[in-house]
Design a protein that fits this description.
Elements lengths: L1 H12 L11 H10 L4 E2 L5 E2 L5 E5 L12 E5 L11 E4 L4 E4 L1 E2 L5 E2 L8 H4 L37 E2 L22 E6 L5 E6 L7 E4 L4 E7 L3 E6 L4 E6 L4 E7 L7 E4 L4 E6 L4 E6 L4 E7 L4 E6 L5 E6 L4 E6 L5 E7 L3 E7 L2 E6 L4 E6 L5 E6 L4 E7 L2 E6 L4 E6 L4 E7 L6 E6 L5 E6 L4 E6 L4 E7 L6 E6 L7
Protein backbone atom coordinates (compact mmCIF):
# COMPACT_ATOMS: atom_id res chain seq x y z
CA UNK A 1 0.00 0.00 0.00
CA UNK A 2 2.84 2.38 0.91
CA UNK A 3 4.55 1.67 -2.44
CA UNK A 4 1.28 2.33 -4.30
CA UNK A 5 0.81 5.70 -2.60
CA UNK A 6 4.34 6.78 -3.57
CA UNK A 7 3.78 5.85 -7.20
CA UNK A 8 0.39 7.55 -7.22
CA UNK A 9 1.92 10.76 -5.89
CA UNK A 10 4.61 10.66 -8.56
CA UNK A 11 2.04 10.18 -11.29
CA UNK A 12 -0.27 13.02 -10.28
CA UNK A 13 2.18 15.51 -8.81
CA UNK A 14 5.29 14.88 -10.89
CA UNK A 15 7.67 14.78 -7.93
CA UNK A 16 6.86 15.30 -4.28
CA UNK A 17 10.14 15.21 -2.39
CA UNK A 18 10.11 13.83 1.14
CA UNK A 19 12.51 15.99 3.09
CA UNK A 20 15.26 14.07 4.82
CA UNK A 21 16.30 14.94 8.36
CA UNK A 22 18.71 17.81 8.00
CA UNK A 23 20.96 19.21 10.71
CA UNK A 24 20.49 23.01 10.83
CA UNK A 25 23.30 24.89 9.09
CA UNK A 26 24.29 26.84 12.21
CA UNK A 27 24.74 23.54 14.06
CA UNK A 28 26.82 22.18 11.21
CA UNK A 29 29.03 25.27 11.28
CA UNK A 30 29.44 24.96 15.06
CA UNK A 31 30.55 21.32 14.83
CA UNK A 32 32.81 22.03 11.84
CA UNK A 33 34.82 24.51 13.93
CA UNK A 34 36.03 21.68 16.16
CA UNK A 35 35.92 18.93 13.54
CA UNK A 36 36.48 20.11 9.97
CA UNK A 37 35.40 17.64 7.26
CA UNK A 38 32.63 16.21 9.42
CA UNK A 39 30.12 14.26 7.33
CA UNK A 40 26.51 15.36 7.94
CA UNK A 41 24.79 12.52 6.17
CA UNK A 42 21.44 13.12 4.52
CA UNK A 43 19.65 10.80 6.95
CA UNK A 44 20.85 12.81 9.96
CA UNK A 45 23.82 10.73 11.13
CA UNK A 46 26.88 12.82 12.05
CA UNK A 47 30.25 11.18 11.32
CA UNK A 48 33.41 12.88 12.59
CA UNK A 49 36.62 12.57 10.55
CA UNK A 50 37.88 9.77 12.84
CA UNK A 51 34.58 7.85 12.23
CA UNK A 52 33.12 8.73 15.65
CA UNK A 53 29.32 8.65 15.21
CA UNK A 54 26.80 10.98 16.83
CA UNK A 55 23.06 10.42 16.54
CA UNK A 56 21.02 13.64 16.73
CA UNK A 57 17.80 13.95 18.67
CA UNK A 58 15.46 16.43 17.02
CA UNK A 59 13.48 18.48 19.55
CA UNK A 60 9.71 18.82 19.44
CA UNK A 61 10.19 22.60 19.76
CA UNK A 62 13.61 23.80 18.53
CA UNK A 63 14.73 27.10 20.03
CA UNK A 64 15.81 29.96 17.78
CA UNK A 65 19.13 31.14 19.23
CA UNK A 66 21.55 33.79 18.05
CA UNK A 67 24.57 31.59 18.59
CA UNK A 68 24.85 27.82 19.06
CA UNK A 69 26.42 26.91 22.38
CA UNK A 70 26.69 23.87 24.61
CA UNK A 71 24.08 23.86 27.37
CA UNK A 72 25.39 20.77 29.15
CA UNK A 73 27.38 17.61 28.52
CA UNK A 74 27.88 14.16 29.99
CA UNK A 75 30.51 13.93 31.39
CA UNK A 76 29.94 17.47 32.61
CA UNK A 77 32.45 20.21 32.00
CA UNK A 78 33.68 18.78 28.70
CA UNK A 79 33.83 20.54 25.36
CA UNK A 80 32.78 19.42 21.91
CA UNK A 81 36.43 18.70 21.11
CA UNK A 82 36.47 16.17 23.98
CA UNK A 83 33.75 14.17 22.19
CA UNK A 84 31.56 13.59 25.25
CA UNK A 85 28.90 10.85 25.30
CA UNK A 86 26.00 13.32 25.40
CA UNK A 87 25.88 16.93 24.18
CA UNK A 88 22.84 19.12 24.83
CA UNK A 89 22.83 22.34 22.84
CA UNK A 90 21.05 25.56 23.66
CA UNK A 91 18.64 25.10 20.74
CA UNK A 92 17.33 21.90 22.41
CA UNK A 93 19.07 19.53 19.97
CA UNK A 94 20.91 16.60 21.56
CA UNK A 95 23.87 14.62 20.21
CA UNK A 96 24.24 11.02 21.41
CA UNK A 97 27.60 9.40 20.84
CA UNK A 98 27.60 5.79 19.64
CA UNK A 99 29.72 3.84 22.13
CA UNK A 100 30.56 0.21 22.87
CA UNK A 101 29.26 -1.35 26.08
CA UNK A 102 31.21 -3.82 28.24
CA UNK A 103 30.13 -6.63 25.91
CA UNK A 104 31.32 -4.80 22.82
CA UNK A 105 27.78 -3.98 21.62
CA UNK A 106 27.00 -0.59 20.08
CA UNK A 107 24.75 1.58 22.23
CA UNK A 108 24.31 5.10 23.60
CA UNK A 109 24.69 6.28 27.18
CA UNK A 110 21.58 6.27 29.37
CA UNK A 111 22.04 8.87 32.12
CA UNK A 112 20.79 8.22 35.63
CA UNK A 113 18.57 11.27 35.40
CA UNK A 114 17.25 11.80 31.88
CA UNK A 115 17.13 15.48 30.87
CA UNK A 116 13.92 16.79 29.30
CA UNK A 117 15.79 17.52 26.05
CA UNK A 118 16.46 13.78 25.69
CA UNK A 119 13.08 12.68 26.98
CA UNK A 120 11.29 14.87 24.41
CA UNK A 121 13.73 14.29 21.55
CA UNK A 122 13.33 11.97 18.58
CA UNK A 123 15.84 10.23 16.33
CA UNK A 124 15.54 11.03 12.60
CA UNK A 125 12.83 8.72 11.32
CA UNK A 126 14.63 7.97 8.02
CA UNK A 127 17.99 7.25 9.63
CA UNK A 128 20.14 4.24 8.78
CA UNK A 129 20.87 2.99 12.28
CA UNK A 130 24.42 1.74 12.89
CA UNK A 131 24.28 -2.03 12.59
CA UNK A 132 23.66 -3.82 15.88
CA UNK A 133 22.82 -0.66 17.84
CA UNK A 134 21.08 -1.38 21.15
CA UNK A 135 18.92 1.44 22.56
CA UNK A 136 18.68 1.27 26.37
CA UNK A 137 15.21 0.55 27.72
CA UNK A 138 15.13 3.93 29.48
CA UNK A 139 15.59 5.71 26.14
CA UNK A 140 13.12 3.73 23.99
CA UNK A 141 10.98 6.88 23.66
CA UNK A 142 13.53 8.44 21.31
CA UNK A 143 12.96 5.72 18.68
CA UNK A 144 9.50 6.77 17.51
CA UNK A 145 8.60 4.76 14.39
CA UNK A 146 12.23 4.18 13.46
CA UNK A 147 12.94 0.55 12.58
CA UNK A 148 15.90 -0.65 14.62
CA UNK A 149 17.10 -4.20 14.25
CA UNK A 150 18.12 -5.33 17.71
CA UNK A 151 20.16 -8.31 16.54
CA UNK A 152 23.47 -8.29 14.71
CA UNK A 153 23.20 -8.84 10.96
CA UNK A 154 25.83 -8.85 8.22
CA UNK A 155 24.11 -6.14 6.17
CA UNK A 156 24.75 -6.62 2.47
CA UNK A 157 28.09 -8.31 2.98
CA UNK A 158 28.29 -11.92 1.81
CA UNK A 159 31.20 -14.28 1.31
CA UNK A 160 32.35 -15.29 -2.16
CA UNK A 161 33.97 -18.58 -3.18
CA UNK A 162 37.73 -18.33 -2.86
CA UNK A 163 40.09 -20.11 -5.25
CA UNK A 164 41.65 -23.33 -4.03
CA UNK A 165 45.19 -23.04 -2.72
CA UNK A 166 47.67 -23.18 -5.56
CA UNK A 167 51.01 -21.86 -6.63
CA UNK A 168 49.32 -19.19 -8.77
CA UNK A 169 49.98 -15.68 -7.50
CA UNK A 170 46.66 -13.99 -6.72
CA UNK A 171 48.12 -10.55 -6.06
CA UNK A 172 48.36 -7.59 -8.39
CA UNK A 173 50.79 -4.69 -8.21
CA UNK A 174 48.54 -1.72 -9.05
CA UNK A 175 49.67 1.45 -10.72
CA UNK A 176 50.32 4.17 -8.10
CA UNK A 177 47.04 5.95 -8.83
CA UNK A 178 45.11 2.76 -7.96
CA UNK A 179 46.85 2.08 -4.67
CA UNK A 180 44.42 1.90 -1.74
CA UNK A 181 41.42 1.93 -4.05
CA UNK A 182 38.56 -0.54 -4.36
CA UNK A 183 36.72 -1.94 -7.37
CA UNK A 184 32.96 -2.48 -7.12
CA UNK A 185 32.02 -4.78 -9.99
CA UNK A 186 28.61 -5.83 -11.32
CA UNK A 187 28.86 -8.88 -13.55
CA UNK A 188 25.51 -8.69 -15.35
CA UNK A 189 24.38 -12.14 -14.20
CA UNK A 190 24.89 -12.22 -10.42
CA UNK A 191 22.82 -10.37 -7.82
CA UNK A 192 26.03 -9.69 -5.92
CA UNK A 193 28.26 -6.64 -6.37
CA UNK A 194 31.83 -7.93 -6.15
CA UNK A 195 34.23 -5.98 -3.90
CA UNK A 196 37.83 -6.26 -5.04
CA UNK A 197 40.92 -4.60 -3.63
CA UNK A 198 43.16 -3.34 -6.42
CA UNK A 199 46.02 -5.45 -5.08
CA UNK A 200 44.07 -8.66 -5.77
CA UNK A 201 42.46 -10.52 -8.66
CA UNK A 202 39.80 -12.16 -6.49
CA UNK A 203 36.80 -10.51 -4.76
CA UNK A 204 37.31 -10.15 -1.01
CA UNK A 205 33.54 -10.38 -0.53
CA UNK A 206 30.34 -9.18 -2.17
CA UNK A 207 27.37 -6.90 -1.49
CA UNK A 208 24.11 -8.75 -2.05
CA UNK A 209 21.16 -7.25 -3.92
CA UNK A 210 17.62 -8.49 -4.50
CA UNK A 211 17.97 -8.17 -8.27
CA UNK A 212 20.79 -8.33 -10.81
CA UNK A 213 22.40 -4.85 -11.03
CA UNK A 214 22.00 -3.10 -14.36
CA UNK A 215 23.77 0.26 -14.00
CA UNK A 216 25.93 1.51 -11.15
CA UNK A 217 27.65 4.81 -10.30
CA UNK A 218 29.68 6.01 -7.33
CA UNK A 219 29.29 9.32 -5.52
CA UNK A 220 31.67 11.10 -3.13
CA UNK A 221 33.53 7.85 -2.33
CA UNK A 222 30.69 7.11 0.10
CA UNK A 223 27.74 5.88 -1.93
CA UNK A 224 26.84 3.52 -4.75
CA UNK A 225 23.73 4.26 -6.81
CA UNK A 226 22.42 1.04 -8.37
CA UNK A 227 19.61 0.30 -10.83
CA UNK A 228 18.65 -3.33 -11.35
CA UNK A 229 16.88 -5.56 -13.84
CA UNK A 230 13.33 -6.25 -12.67
CA UNK A 231 13.15 -3.45 -10.08
CA UNK A 232 11.44 -0.06 -10.09
CA UNK A 233 13.82 1.20 -7.42
CA UNK A 234 17.22 2.86 -7.28
CA UNK A 235 19.25 1.51 -4.37
CA UNK A 236 21.52 3.94 -2.52
CA UNK A 237 24.24 1.91 -0.80
CA UNK A 238 26.27 3.52 1.97
CA UNK A 239 29.79 2.13 1.51
CA UNK A 240 30.95 2.82 5.11
CA UNK A 241 27.87 0.93 6.40
CA UNK A 242 27.71 -1.59 3.56
CA UNK A 243 23.94 -1.31 3.69
CA UNK A 244 21.14 0.05 1.53
CA UNK A 245 20.53 3.42 3.12
CA UNK A 246 17.61 4.28 0.86
CA UNK A 247 15.49 2.93 -1.99
CA UNK A 248 14.15 5.57 -4.37
CA UNK A 249 11.06 4.37 -6.23
CA UNK A 250 10.11 5.34 -9.79
CA UNK A 251 7.00 4.90 -11.89
CA UNK A 252 8.82 2.41 -14.14
CA UNK A 253 12.15 0.63 -14.25
CA UNK A 254 15.11 3.03 -13.96
CA UNK A 255 18.00 2.33 -16.29
CA UNK A 256 21.05 4.56 -16.81
CA UNK A 257 22.62 6.91 -14.25
CA UNK A 258 24.59 10.10 -14.86
CA UNK A 259 26.35 11.93 -12.02
CA UNK A 260 27.03 15.69 -11.92
CA UNK A 261 29.46 16.01 -9.02
CA UNK A 262 29.58 19.80 -9.19
CA UNK A 263 25.82 20.24 -8.89
CA UNK A 264 25.50 17.24 -6.54
CA UNK A 265 22.72 15.70 -8.59
CA UNK A 266 22.15 12.49 -10.52
CA UNK A 267 20.10 11.96 -13.66
CA UNK A 268 18.28 8.62 -13.84
CA UNK A 269 16.56 7.51 -17.04
CA UNK A 270 13.22 5.70 -17.16
CA UNK A 271 12.82 4.82 -20.86
CA UNK A 272 9.38 3.23 -20.50
CA UNK A 273 8.08 6.44 -18.94
CA UNK A 274 9.82 8.76 -21.46
CA UNK A 275 11.41 10.53 -18.52
CA UNK A 276 14.70 11.44 -16.92
CA UNK A 277 14.50 12.01 -13.17
CA UNK A 278 16.73 14.34 -11.16
CA UNK A 279 17.98 13.03 -7.80
CA UNK A 280 19.32 15.46 -5.19
CA UNK A 281 22.46 13.71 -3.93
CA UNK A 282 22.60 15.77 -0.74
CA UNK A 283 19.22 14.49 0.43
CA UNK A 284 18.92 11.41 -1.83
CA UNK A 285 15.43 12.46 -2.90
CA UNK A 286 13.74 12.96 -6.25
CA UNK A 287 13.60 16.65 -7.11
CA UNK A 288 12.34 16.76 -10.71
CA UNK A 289 10.92 14.73 -13.57
CA UNK A 290 12.06 15.77 -17.05
CA UNK A 291 9.61 14.59 -19.72
CA UNK A 292 11.36 13.77 -22.99
CA UNK A 293 10.60 12.37 -26.44
CA UNK A 294 10.94 8.64 -26.96
CA UNK A 295 12.63 5.85 -25.03
CA UNK A 296 16.03 7.17 -24.02
CA UNK A 297 19.29 5.23 -24.05
CA UNK A 298 23.02 5.97 -24.52
CA UNK A 299 22.84 8.95 -22.15
CA UNK A 300 25.75 11.40 -22.08
CA UNK A 301 26.26 14.45 -19.87
CA UNK A 302 28.38 17.31 -21.23
CA UNK A 303 31.46 18.11 -19.18
CA UNK A 304 30.03 21.45 -18.01
CA UNK A 305 26.77 19.80 -16.96
CA UNK A 306 24.64 21.97 -19.25
CA UNK A 307 23.39 19.30 -21.68
CA UNK A 308 22.27 15.70 -21.78
CA UNK A 309 22.30 13.77 -25.05
CA UNK A 310 20.39 10.57 -25.67
CA UNK A 311 19.13 8.29 -28.43
CA UNK A 312 15.53 7.16 -28.84
CA UNK A 313 15.87 3.38 -29.05
CA UNK A 314 12.71 3.08 -31.18
CA UNK A 315 13.44 5.72 -33.82
CA UNK A 316 17.27 6.18 -33.67
CA UNK A 317 16.61 9.91 -33.19
CA UNK A 318 19.29 11.81 -31.27
CA UNK A 319 18.09 14.46 -28.82
CA UNK A 320 19.79 17.10 -26.69
CA UNK A 321 18.32 18.45 -23.45
CA UNK A 322 19.49 21.97 -22.59
CA UNK A 323 19.42 21.73 -18.80
CA UNK A 324 20.14 25.42 -18.25
CA UNK A 325 17.50 26.49 -20.79
CA UNK A 326 14.31 25.25 -19.12
CA UNK A 327 15.06 21.69 -20.32
CA UNK A 328 14.60 22.61 -23.96
CA UNK A 329 14.65 19.58 -26.28
CA UNK A 330 16.68 19.87 -29.48
CA UNK A 331 16.35 17.35 -32.31
CA UNK A 332 19.80 16.45 -33.64
CA UNK A 333 18.69 13.95 -36.30
CA UNK A 334 18.55 10.22 -37.02
CA UNK A 335 21.62 8.00 -36.98
CA UNK A 336 21.68 4.21 -37.46
CA UNK A 337 22.70 1.76 -34.71
CA UNK A 338 24.07 4.35 -32.29
CA UNK A 339 26.51 2.83 -29.80
CA UNK A 340 27.71 6.00 -28.03
CA UNK A 341 27.36 9.78 -27.97
CA UNK A 342 30.03 12.24 -26.83
CA UNK A 343 30.26 16.04 -26.70
CA UNK A 344 33.43 18.11 -26.96
CA UNK A 345 34.40 21.52 -28.35
CA UNK A 346 30.72 22.27 -29.05
CA UNK A 347 30.52 19.27 -31.36
CA UNK A 348 28.50 16.07 -31.04
CA UNK A 349 30.28 12.81 -31.79
CA UNK A 350 28.13 9.78 -32.62
CA UNK A 351 29.42 6.27 -33.26
CA UNK A 352 27.57 3.65 -35.31
CA UNK A 353 28.42 0.14 -34.23
CA UNK A 354 27.45 -1.62 -37.46
CA UNK A 355 28.76 0.94 -39.95
CA UNK A 356 32.03 1.61 -38.05
CA UNK A 357 31.49 5.32 -38.65
CA UNK A 358 31.86 8.41 -36.52
CA UNK A 359 29.52 11.29 -37.33
CA UNK A 360 30.58 14.78 -36.20
CA UNK A 361 27.81 17.38 -35.77
CA UNK A 362 28.13 21.11 -35.16
CA UNK A 363 25.86 21.73 -32.17
CA UNK A 364 25.13 25.36 -33.03
CA UNK A 365 24.05 24.75 -36.63
CA UNK A 366 23.08 21.07 -36.41
CA UNK A 367 25.12 20.60 -39.58
CA UNK A 368 27.20 17.53 -40.41
CA UNK A 369 30.89 18.46 -40.18
CA UNK A 370 32.29 15.09 -41.21
CA UNK A 371 31.74 11.35 -41.19
CA UNK A 372 34.89 9.30 -40.84
CA UNK A 373 35.79 5.62 -40.83
CA UNK A 374 36.86 4.35 -37.40
CA UNK A 375 37.87 1.14 -35.65
CA UNK A 376 35.53 -1.83 -36.11
CA UNK A 377 32.66 -2.37 -33.62
CA UNK A 378 33.00 0.89 -31.68
CA UNK A 379 31.25 0.03 -28.40
CA UNK A 380 32.19 2.94 -26.16
CA UNK A 381 33.68 6.41 -26.24
CA UNK A 382 35.13 8.85 -23.70
CA UNK A 383 35.88 12.55 -24.11
CA UNK A 384 38.82 13.83 -22.08
CA UNK A 385 40.17 17.36 -22.52
CA UNK A 386 40.58 17.82 -26.31
CA UNK A 387 40.73 14.14 -27.12
CA UNK A 388 38.17 11.49 -27.88
CA UNK A 389 38.97 7.88 -26.98
CA UNK A 390 36.98 5.37 -29.05
CA UNK A 391 36.97 1.75 -27.92
CA UNK A 392 36.75 -0.79 -30.75
CA UNK A 393 35.76 -4.28 -29.66
CA UNK A 394 36.64 -6.18 -32.84
CA UNK A 395 40.39 -5.57 -32.60
CA UNK A 396 40.58 -4.42 -28.95
CA UNK A 397 41.81 -1.04 -30.03
CA UNK A 398 41.44 2.47 -28.65
CA UNK A 399 41.54 5.14 -31.33
CA UNK A 400 42.30 8.71 -30.29
CA UNK A 401 40.79 11.67 -32.13
CA UNK A 402 41.96 15.25 -31.64
CA UNK A 403 38.71 17.20 -31.32
CA UNK A 404 40.41 20.40 -32.47
CA UNK A 405 41.20 18.91 -35.90
CA UNK A 406 38.88 15.86 -35.83
CA UNK A 407 41.71 13.69 -37.06
CA UNK A 408 42.79 10.27 -35.76
CA UNK A 409 46.12 10.78 -34.02
CA UNK A 410 46.76 7.50 -32.20
CA UNK A 411 45.78 3.84 -32.16
CA UNK A 412 46.37 2.04 -28.85
CA UNK A 413 46.33 -1.76 -29.05
CA UNK A 414 45.18 -3.54 -25.89
CA UNK A 415 46.47 -7.03 -26.78
CA UNK A 416 44.00 -8.75 -24.46
CA UNK A 417 42.53 -11.27 -26.92
CA UNK A 418 39.10 -10.56 -25.49
CA UNK A 419 36.08 -8.41 -26.27
CA UNK A 420 36.42 -4.99 -24.68
CA UNK A 421 33.09 -3.42 -23.73
CA UNK A 422 33.49 -0.26 -21.63
CA UNK A 423 35.84 2.63 -20.99
CA UNK A 424 35.31 4.58 -17.77
CA UNK A 425 37.32 7.46 -16.36
CA UNK A 426 38.55 7.13 -12.78
CA UNK A 427 37.34 10.32 -11.08
CA UNK A 428 40.05 12.80 -10.18
CA UNK A 429 42.70 11.17 -12.39
CA UNK A 430 43.79 11.08 -16.01
CA UNK A 431 43.25 7.32 -16.06
CA UNK A 432 40.51 5.18 -17.51
CA UNK A 433 39.57 1.57 -16.85
CA UNK A 434 38.83 -0.51 -19.95
CA UNK A 435 36.81 -3.59 -19.05
CA UNK A 436 36.41 -6.81 -20.98
CA UNK A 437 33.32 -8.98 -20.59
CA UNK A 438 34.82 -12.03 -22.28
CA UNK A 439 38.40 -12.25 -21.07
CA UNK A 440 37.86 -11.22 -17.39
CA UNK A 441 40.60 -8.66 -17.72
CA UNK A 442 40.90 -4.91 -17.37
CA UNK A 443 43.35 -2.36 -18.73
CA UNK A 444 44.46 0.89 -17.15
CA UNK A 445 44.80 3.62 -19.79
CA UNK A 446 46.73 6.84 -19.26
CA UNK A 447 44.80 9.39 -21.35
CA UNK A 448 47.62 11.97 -21.27
CA UNK A 449 50.43 9.61 -22.27
CA UNK A 450 47.98 7.73 -24.50
CA UNK A 451 49.28 4.35 -23.49
CA UNK A 452 48.19 1.30 -21.53
CA UNK A 453 49.92 1.31 -18.16
CA UNK A 454 48.78 -2.12 -17.11
CA UNK A 455 46.62 -5.05 -18.15
CA UNK A 456 45.54 -7.28 -15.30
CA UNK A 457 43.38 -10.37 -14.99
CA UNK A 458 40.40 -10.39 -12.64
CA UNK A 459 38.37 -13.35 -11.42
CA UNK A 460 34.96 -11.99 -12.51
CA UNK A 461 33.64 -10.56 -15.79
CA UNK A 462 32.90 -6.84 -15.68
CA UNK A 463 29.61 -5.37 -16.85
CA UNK A 464 29.91 -2.21 -14.75
CA UNK A 465 32.79 -1.06 -12.57
CA UNK A 466 33.08 1.74 -10.02
CA UNK A 467 36.46 2.73 -8.58
CA UNK A 468 36.56 4.46 -5.18
CA UNK A 469 39.06 5.27 -2.48
CA UNK A 470 39.23 2.55 0.13
CA UNK A 471 36.46 3.29 2.59
CA UNK A 472 36.76 2.97 6.36
CA UNK A 473 33.86 0.84 7.59
CA UNK A 474 31.62 2.17 10.36
CA UNK A 475 30.28 -1.15 11.61
CA UNK A 476 33.57 -2.72 12.62
Amino acid sequence: MHRFIIILMLMFLGITPVLASKIPSDMQNYIQKSFPKTDFRFDGVIILPDSTIYLPLFPAKPLDVKEIQIKSTIPSGTTLADKPEIIILNNNYVLLKVINDKNGKKTVLSPTTIPDEIRNGLLPQDMLVPRGLMIPETLKGIIGNLDIAMAENPGLKVAVPQPKTSTVNNTVVPVPELKNKTFYVATGYSKNIQVINTESKTPAYALSQNYVPNNMKGYDNKFLLVTSFGSNGLNVISLPDEAVIKEILFTSKPDEILIDNNKKIAYVSCPEDASIFVVNLETMTLSKQIKINGMCERLTLSEDGSKIFYCDKKTNEIWAIELDNNYLLKDIGKFPNVSKIAFNNNKIYITSRTKNHLAIIDYATNGLIAEIEITAKPVDMLAYKNNLFILGAAENTVQVIDTNTDEITDAIFLNTNGFSTNINRIDGTNLAIISDSRASIYCVLDMVKKQVLKASSIEVPIRTIVVTDRVKKLNK
